Input
Amino acid sequence: AHPFRRPIYPQRGYGDWELTIPVELAANRRIFNFVDGLEVFSNRSEPEESLISLKVGQYRNLKTIAGSDAHEFKKVGSSATVFPCNITDESNFIEALRDEYYYGIDIGY
Output
């Protein structure tokens, strides 16, 4: 979640770096050797944080997801993960996560 949140946030993000670093350098963070996917959109992230996440996901060929992470009602649904099938229960959801064809989108209310 929020892999490139800036360290100015109270939770200090996930390390100190500039969001203008080359994608190749950002993508070489050790954690990316252990994940299958990456959150690329969240309404709690700044646009440049989402952009570097998206670029790293594409560079590393990772599955992308998004979540509204809404802390206020008007932000609910502002980003989402698109699946090619209807999700009707938990087992459908798990099966869909194993699928290769989902992706995160920013709806941007």
